[in-house]
Amino acid sequence: MQEELTTLQKVYDVSLEFIIKYSFQIIGALIILAVRVKFAGWVG
């Protein structure tokens, strides 16, 4: 049981680290995508 909890904790830690590390890049990419879609609608 303890080994399963340790494994689950490691998975949680890695997932949280990934979210913290890449969240600003993902948000930035979504903002750029939204601006480009809006610009494409305005131009086209």
Summed up, the helix count is 1
Mean pLDDT: 93
Percentage of residues assigned to helices: over 70%
Overall 3D shape: rod-shaped
Radius of gyration, whole Å: 19 Å
Return the string of H and E elements: H
Structural class: mainly alpha
Main beta sheet strand tally, sense and closure: none
Fraction of residues in β-strands: under 5%
- Which stretches of 5+ consecutive residues score pLDDT under 50? none
Straight-line N-to-C gap: 60 Å
Oligomer: single chain
**Number of E-type strands:** 0
Topology, pairings included?
Layout: H1 2-43
Q: What key phrases describe this protein's structure?
A:
single chain, mainly alpha, rod-shaped, about 95% helix, 1 helix, about 45 residues
Walk me through this protein's architecture.
- Helices cover 95% and strands 0% of the residues.
- The longest helix has 42 residues, at 2-43.
- The model has no long low-confidence stretch (mean pLDDT 93).
- By secondary structure, it is mostly helical.
